[in-house]
UniProtKB/TrEMBL annotation:
Keywords: G-protein coupled receptor, Membrane, Olfaction, Receptor, Sensory transduction, Transducer, Transmembrane, Transmembrane helix
SUPFAM superfamilies recorded: Family A G protein-coupled receptor-like
Primary localisation category: membrane
UniProt organism field: Ursus americanus (American black bear)
Organism lineage: Eukaryota, Metazoa, Chordata, Craniata, Vertebrata
Entry protein name: G-protein coupled receptors family 1 profile domain-containing protein
Length: 315
């Protein structure tokens, strides 16, 4: 618990108030419907994908295990952020406990970086499948997926732990109104009466180290894939390969672009409404969770057939 001594009066922060879209209150009304629909789509699509991969023996392969991991991450991110945002929109339930706020902060930072890392591993999977197809069965094995999953969990889980710890140890001097819909690190830290330079530097360093390195490796993988695809002579091979990888790459590029736009809006915050980065932050936690199972799953022929077989069994 954080406390600040002011004369003989001890001020203790036990909870925070998430006070979002104060300058654009109508946004709450217009956002609530599409946000709830995106949330339902994300939860439904990812759940169907997980069930299909679990029940279909033909999908018990490394690539689909990675898809399962991505779906699990999407579900956790959505459940961590969107229900609370909708509770604020619909019932004005702005209060969030001190510990729940920093738990949400950790999960958001940890799981979004895990998602980025999973994209990187999946890009490597596609690189091996297209550039070294004969070596694919020996390189991309169940053991490889297990090691990759441990790496994803350990790297991002450990490196993002200091973010909420540094914020939770600050003195908040009785100020507890967060100008955001979620417990973003800097939105919370700026309430403190302490120096938050270390918080800012660590967030910046870890963010660019994790996401930046993933992005570089993803672009490298898809550049090599593009070179290999353009050398293919078989009729229709180029179109098929580009169709498979193109949609993946566009989604990853969109993921990165939204992050870049979010950073730029913070840099030029005097020229844009403070509600814009808040809006982007909220949407970023649900749009990709809804798109991922569609782009990575439904567009894959084997998964599409698996879902059809599953639906036939149900009906």
């Amino acid at each position: 618990m954080t406390a600040h001594q002011n004369g003989n009066i001890s001020i203790e922060v036990s909870d925070f108030l998430l006070n979002c879209f104060v300058r654009s209150p109508s946004w709450k009304f217009w956002l609530s419907l599409p946000l709830s629909l995106l949330f339902l789509l994300a939860m439904g699509a990812n759940s169907i994908l997980l069930i299909t991969i679990r029940l279909e023996a033909s999908l018990h392969e490394p690539m689909y295990y990675l898809l399962s991991l991505l779906s699990l991450l999407d579900i956790v991110v959505c459940l961590t952020v969107i229900p609370k945002v909708l509770a604020i929109f619909w019932f004005n339930l702005k209060s969030i406990s001190f510990y729940a706020c920093f738990l949400q902060m950790y999960i958001m930072n940890c799981f979004l970086s895990m998602e980025s890392c999973t994209f990187m591993v999946m890009a490597y999977d596609r690189y091996v499948a297209i550039c070294h197809p004969l070596r694919y069965p020996s390189l991309i094995t169940d053991q490889f997926v297990a090691k990759a999953a441990i790496f994803i969990l350990a790297r991002n889980g450990i490196l993002t732990v200091p973010i909420p710890i540094l914020s939770s140890r600050l003195n908040y001097c009785g100020r507890n109104v967060i100008e955001n819909c979620i417990c973003a690190n800097m939105s919370v830290s700026r309430l403190s009466c302490d120096d938050v330079t270390i918080n800012r530097l660590y967030q910046f360093a870890v963010g660019w180290t994790l996401l930046g390195s993933d992005l570089i490796l993803i672009f490298l993988s898809y550049s090599l894939i593009l070179q290999a695809v353009l050398r293919l002579k078989a009729e229709g091979a180029v179109a098929k390969a580009l169709s498979t990888c193109g949609s993946h790459f566009i989604l990853i590029l969109f993921f990165s672009t939204i992050l870049l736009v979010f950073v730029l809006t913070l840099v030029v915050k005097e020229k844009v409404s403070p509600d814009v980065p808040v809006l982007l932050n909220v949407l970023h936690h649900v749009i990709f969770s809804a798109l991922n199972p569609i782009v990575y799953g439904v567009r894959t022929q084997e998964i599409k057939q698996g879902i059809q077989r599953l639906l036939k069994k149900v009906w």
